[in-house]
Amino acid sequence: MSAAANWWQTGIIYQVYPRSFQDSNGDGVGDLAGIIARLNYLHSLNVDILWLSPIYPSPMHDFGYDVADYCAIHPLFGTMADFDRLLAEVHARGMRLLLDLVPNHSSHLHPWFIASRSARDDPRRAWYIWRDPAPGGGPPNNWLSHFGGPAWTFDEASGQYYMHQFLPQQPELNHRHPEVLPAILDCMRFWLDKGVDGFRVDVIGMLLKDPLFRDEPENPSWNGVREYQRLLHVHTANLPEVHALIRRMRAFLDGWDDRLMIGELYLPNADLVRYYGDEQGAECHLPFNFQLIRAPWDAAVVRHLVDAYEAALPRHAWPNWVLGNHDQKRLASRVGSRQARVAHMLLLTLRGTPTCYYGDEIGMLDVPLPLALMQDPPALRQPEIAHLVGRDPQRTPMQWDASANAGFAAAGVRPWLPLAPDCGAHNVARQLADPSSALAFFRAMSALRRAEPALASGSYRSLDAGKPDVFAYLRGDPGNALLVLLNFAAEPRCPVLPLSCAAADLLLSTTMTPPRRVSLSQLVLAADEGMVLRLPVAGCVA
Ligand code: NOJ
């Protein structure tokens, strides 16, 4: 696929973490009515596609990623009528709505699991993964949970272990049982019939595990910190046969017009691109590409990873880039507030669908919490590394204004997680009033992306910028080429570019200086500055 024609190729995806976006009913937790009240703000960001983390009924052991009913709305977030209104309001603004689908595991309170654990001969028993204890007693094998401890919990009543790669309250569905995928497809049908535009599928590469339940090998380069990393997960993730399952999900989704399937996958290029599918059938439209989150923030490293990803993409595959999500340290905390603008310019000028995380557009920072205030299960289960694995800091309430609770919740309400201490000064309202703010820059950058076909769908080529710390690339074709220059250094840099033209038009700088004509041979990038420039039509790009 070379030209971008579809909404999910040209659009910007924005992840809303519903618990933390806007509380409308005074319980300290965000809700659907709150999101509706903020839709005009989202529209003003020029984002096109909203993805909501789970809003289904759940006991909230993993804050909604433990689903107790795939076809309903948690009362904490509102009602189905609220959801229908949200969907209609999103569509009325020309935007799209994606839900989070969690087919790998349910809540232990899902009726399927309640039945499964009720008796060994219950028809739902084999919908989950049950095993006898190891011959000498103890868990059936050495598999580990992402959140610390074994991936097995013993059920006294039936004398067997069930498997879970996250919490014991998140038992894994057995996707080798012929009835399980159809049951999940039924849930997809429910939302697709309502008009939901697609799904972000949780841990899509983990849906199948080794049928022989073999031990996983030790990881020879384990650094001794996170227990989960002690093993190489060759039998619990990314199994070759998972692709056939994903092809079935995609074929089902394609029974509706123009819907989107995104897969959550943390994989190197060679494995990742297989999740687009092949001649046997399509899989994910967008297997999430998390490389910008994980890479050291260095111009040469980032250039290399962009070029390597572009080179690895199959011909039919559309690229995508992600800067943040609810599982990762926030962008501005990872790279610093000044470089966060450079990162957004990168995200919104690369070829492919961009995904942003709520609050990053105003440069929200991780909010460090003492252990006593942490709620995230991997932190509570591994207190000695809580500050490393806890995800509460990146999930704190959206900072809207300088009022009580920063406008997230009414005065006197206790938000479910504390607000950033500087939210009185660091918020949407303040930045809306400041034409040089991070928010003003984000909006200008997203508007530019929307206005320039070269950014939405043009080709990509990196350039040698002649100086370390500068990442330079072209978007578009010689008839309409844009040049992007990103200074990753906290000092000025003067790139030396392999371009034959003398001048170009600066369209946007991260510093928000006004557009102007600039000399390419005397160009100075200020510290932490990124620029998008339009090159003259002729004689510049070979
Ligand atoms: C990935 C989700 O993004 C994360 O938040 C969750 O804890 C696990 N999957 C388990 O569902």
From TrEMBL:
Gene3D superfamilies: Glycosidases (3.20.20.80), Golgi alpha-mannosidase II (2.60.40.1180), Oligo-1,6-glucosidase, Domain 2 (3.90.400.10). Transmembrane segments: none annotated. Keywords: Glycosidase, Hydrolase. GO terms for molecular function: alpha-amylase activity; oligo-1,6-glucosidase activity. Pfam families: Alpha-amylase. It comes from the Bacteria. The keyword Transmembrane helix does not apply. Its EC number is 3.2.1.10. One of its GO terms (biological process) is oligosaccharide catabolic process. Residues 15-395 form the Glycosyl hydrolase family 13 catalytic domain. PANTHER family: ALPHA-AMYLASE FAMILY MEMBER, NEUTRAL AND BASIC AMINO ACID TRANSPORT PROTEIN RBAT. Belongs to the glycosyl hydrolase 13 family. This is Oligo-1,6-glucosidase.
